[in-house]
Specification:
The chain is an all-alpha fold and 578 residues long. It contains 28 helices and 4 strands. The protein is 68% helix and 2% strand.
Length: 578
């Protein structure tokens, strides 16, 4: 008997669970907006050096705009780039080159002569194309040319905040509770995310983004725990997968909001202000009864269980479930609560150590490959808003397949297969020519779909592998590795300058390693949540030990059979001699 039996007694997956899971999942619509926001708020618009008074300068040369259009006129002021097809983004001619406007001048044929003309950096700033973005942090603070790496740095800083939040909020929620930390995370995200929209400088913007990232971790970690700790064992797979659809749909919501606003300040406000609403209704949540019992607050846990019974229309269970019944169901867990747990417990015992080390690699590689694909949408040469919607749409069939696989094949096979398939898509894309953009985009979408399905699995898998007493600490620990991967992903993209295929090789290689390691994790399909470290060791160490004992017994039986056979032969020989 355990807490899972109590949940079944008060209605299983009843009306309370439906309301609880739905309210916890709705903020997921905007969690994708937080993680992928940089694609739009830090979008790189087309740009070139600003040429002051170029129209009046052209008029002084008796050149009117009726004779040449604006782009042709720019050829007299700005050189072409290395490809010879686009204007340079970072240099301009020291003196106007009017002869380049002559119709008989061949750009390609005279590229060598053009390179000899004297150029200079953009002394008067840049002019930005506003057809795709009206305003971004790139155009507002001129994060182009020598400052171009600052765009990726802003995303790395945000992910650094998510990393810090995973470390801080993971431990705090095991100490102060899931509900309290979740409420605070909503408030922090709403307040600081909104303040980000009013940033007067790039440094202020990065500071606010860092602290917003911390709140994002708090929301994600505590949402997962509050879900899995209030739902029956048999419903976890379905709930975990359906909840992930909110994040998937949120990617398309982000594309729609970004397309309608096209201004980074308005977009920032639009995706953060709704968290004030989530903060207000989050007070309705019930604290995890498992956590309350393990923290010697059984009286509060009993009140929450009675509340669930009433909402699930099981009022008769209010009288039947008493403090004695609760303590009887969770006797082992109550005894375990008398022991203080730390992060060291994640690696102290054999099975916990194996789980933690394997999950570190899986979380890192899943996040590393996911953000490597999802955070550089402009490279596909397709409308950025359209590609964001496509990236969201492909996740739906991938997660439905993952749902079937999680239900019938189990967590371990699903996790490993998703990672290996994403690696296959990434590696295949290396050999597709760059001019075949449709095929490259399709393969990238499939790779992203498999990594997204891997995320769906790993969140559920991790919550089921770690025991209640240190579940949040474990989630925070493994999520930390995920954030390290998401921080490393933008940095790897810089290597594209040295070898275009190098980032894909690194992303794919990491996914292969993690896919193989995932098969070393224990299976948790239809297994009740462990509440103590002893539960984990007994469940999965016993299985390994059982296999060893069976092998040893078979060997002993074989030896006894052989011994008996030899003795029997001896007896028969003796009888024959007589």
């Amino acid at each position: 008997m355990g807490f899972a039996d109590l949940l079944n007694d008060v209605g299983g997956f009843g009306r309370f669970q439906w309301i609880h899971v739905t309210l916890l999942s709705i903020p997921g619509l905007l969690m994708a907006s937080q993680n992928l926001l940089n694609n739009f708020t830090a979008g790189m618009p087309g740009h070139h050096c600003t040429i002051p008074n170029r129209t009046s300068i052209a008029s002084s040369q008796n050149i009117s705009q009726s004779e040449v259009d604006d782009r042709e006129l720019l050829r007299a002021f700005i050189p072409m780039d290395a490809s010879g097809t686009k204007l340079s983004k970072c240099t301009r001619y020291v003196e106007p080159q009017w002869h380049l406007l002559e119709s008989n001048v061949s750009v390609i044929g005279h590229q060598a002569n053009f390179s000899e003309l004297e150029t200079e950096i953009c002394l008067d700033g840049w002019t930005y194309d506003k057809s795709e973005f009206l305003s971004t942090v790139v155009s507002e603070w001129d994060l182009v040319c020598t400052l171009r790496p600052m765009k990726q740095m802003s995303q790395t800083i945000y992910m650094g905040g998510v990393l810090a939040g995973a470390v801080i909020f993971g431990g705090l929620s095991d100490r102060f509770g899931r509900k309290a930390l979740l409420i605070w995370s909503y408030f922090q995200l709403a307040t600081l995310g909104t303040c980000t929209a009013f940033s007067p400088s790039f440094m202020t913007y990065c500071i606010f983004r860092f602290m917003t990232g911390m709140a994002v971790s708090g929301v994600i970690l505590n949402t997962v725990s509050l879900k899995v700790e209030w739902i029956p064992t048999m419903s976890r797979t379905l709930v975990g997968t359906l909840s992930s659809f909110f994040f998937t749909f949120g990617q398309m919501v982000l594309a729609g909001i970004a397309h309608s606003l096209r201004d980074w300040r308005k977009l920032q406000m639009a995706v953060c202000a709704p968290f004030f609403l989530f903060f207000l209704y989050s007070w309705w949540y019930s604290e995890s009864a498992r956590w309350l019992v393990l923290n010697r607050r059984s009286d509060e846990a009993l009140k929450h269980i009675h509340r669930v019974a009433r909402i699930n229309r099981k009022p008769e269970m209010v009288e039947k479930i008493t403090m004695e019944v609760l303590e009887c169901h969770m006797h082992k867990e109550v005894q375990s609560s008398k022991t203080t747990h730390t992060a060291y417990d994640l690696i102290r015992t054999t099975v916990m150590r194996r789980i933690s080390l394997c999950l570190m690699v899986v979380w890192f590689s899943t996040s590393f490959a996911y953000y490597g694909l999802a955070m550089d949408l402009q490279k596909f040469g397709v409308n950025i808003y359209l590609i964001q919607i496509i990236f969201g749409l492909v996740d739906f069939p991938a997660k439905l397949v993952a749902l079937g696989s999680l239900t019938f094949l189990g967590r371990r096979i699903t996790q490993g297969t998703c990672l290996l398939m994403s690696a296959l898509m990434i590696f295949t894309n290396i050999f597709v020519p760059t001019d075949m953009q449709s095929i490259r985009t399709t393969l990238a979408c499939l790779g992203k779909a498999f990594t997204s399905a891997s995320f769906t699995c790993i969140y559920l898998f991790t919550g089921e592998l770690y025991p209640t007493v240190i579940r949040q600490t474990g989630m925070g620990f493994t999520s930390t590795m995920s954030r390290v991967g998401s921080m490393a992903a933008p940095a790897v993209l810089i290597m594209e300058e040295m070898l275009p295929a190098l980032p894909s090789m690194i992303y794919g290689g990491a996914a292969v390693v993690a896919g193989i390691i995932a098969f070393f994790l224990p299976e948790t399909l239809n297994i009740p949540l462990p509440d103590t470290i002893e539960d984990v060791e007994e469940k999965w160490a016993k299985k390994n030990l059982g296999a060893e004992e069976r092998a040893e017994k078979e060997a002993v039986a074989l030896r006894e059979m052989k011994k008996g056979s030899v003795e029997g032969d001896g007896e028969i020989t003796g009888l024959n001699a007589l």
